[in-house]
Amino acid sequence: MQINFAKMSGAGNDFIVIDTMQQPVNLTEPQILSLCTRRTGIGADGLILVESSETLDFSMRYYNADGKPGSMCGNGGRCAAYFAYTTGISGKTASFQANGDHYNAWITDIECVKLKMTVPDDFRSNFYANGFSCHFVNTGSPHTIIYTEELDTFNVENAGSAIRNNSTLFPEGTNVNFLEVTGPDTLSVRTFERGVEAETLACGTGAVAAALMSYKLEKVSSTSIRVTVRSGDTLHVDFSDDMKEVFLSGPAKVVYTGTVNV
Ligand SMILES: N[C@@H](CCC[C@H](N)C(=O)O)C(=O)O
């Protein structure tokens, strides 16, 4: 089977995006894993199917790099909206469905997308996991938060993998974010992603979790936070004081388009 795809990057979180409205696609878990594997496949943190929707512009189905269905991907949602805009599926404003939720996105500039997130839930603060003081929030995906003062040299792979696989505390697993507070409205974040099982260069729902938790814990004092991610890009998280309105903005681009044999 030949599949047309776009390789996209959302602040360094990279995705294979496939329009299933143009071509019928039925990929198995091993096929998605193989496509997402670096060096031997296209290589990506996840794969996104842009599917038809009866009521909205499109529906987004997200798979992690391990080939398994993922929870909400903030950068993936921003990339899907930019893909839909560049292919004419939607205009500068897009509405789509993902994981049973309704999302709105706006193309705010060339290769810049703002996404309205769902209302966060399941806030948990101050518990210990694998020797680390942790916090947790679900922003569409489950996120553990750990503060450090030495983010650049921190061993994200070791600590991230241990906490991600702590099945006593996280039966469904968790993404793990390591944060350094760099100012009253700025954070630096590195994320170990569930389903990639490695550090990625950015995580959208992770950046949102980092900003909201840091505001709740009074580690930042603004409701407009700039989050520097591992790629060096900046994600913006803006939210209302009650956290019922939450927006994630940042870069999203098509790196190349191609055809792959599966
Ligand atoms: N990179 C994503 C999060 C993707 C989902 C996640 N890995 C999971 O299923 O836990 C983002 O930008 O939010």
The poorly predicted ranges are: none
Task: Please indicate the count of domains.
Answer: 2
Let me know the largest β-sheet: 17 strands, mixed
Q: Give the structural class.
A: alpha+beta
Q: Could you tell me the number of beta strands?
A: 17
- Rounded to the nearest angstrom, the distance between the terminal CA atoms is 5 Å
Topology (elements, then pairings):
Layout: E1 2-10, E2 13-19, H1 29-36, E3 46-51, E4 58-64, H2 74-86, E5 93-98, E6 101-109, E7 112-116, E8 121-129, E9 132-138, E10 142-147, H3 156-164, E11 175-183, E12 186-193, E13 198-200, H4 204-216, E14 224-228, E15 234-239, E16 246-251, E17 253-261
Parallel strand pairs: 2-3, 4-5, 10-11, 12-14
Antiparallel strand pairs: 1-2, 1-17, 3-4, 5-6, 6-7, 7-16, 8-9, 9-10, 11-12, 12-13, 14-15, 15-16
Characterization of this structure:
With 262 residues, this protein is α+β, with helices and mostly antiparallel strands. It has 4 helices and 17 strands. The chain is globular and about 50 Å long. The structure holds the ligand N[C@@H](CCC[C@H](N)C(=O)O)C(=O)O. The ligand N[C@@H](CCC[C@H](N)C(=O)O)C(=O)O is lined by residues 13, 64, 70-71, 73-76, 141, 175, 193-195, 203-205.
Summarize this entry quickly.
The protein is of the alpha+beta class. It has helices at 29-36, 74-86, 156-164, 204-216, and strands spanning 2-10, 13-19, 46-51, 58-64, 93-98, 101-109, 112-116, 121-129, 132-138, 142-147, 175-183, 186-193, 198-200, 224-228, 234-239, 246-251, 253-261. One of its GO terms (biological process) is lysine biosynthetic process via diaminopimelate.
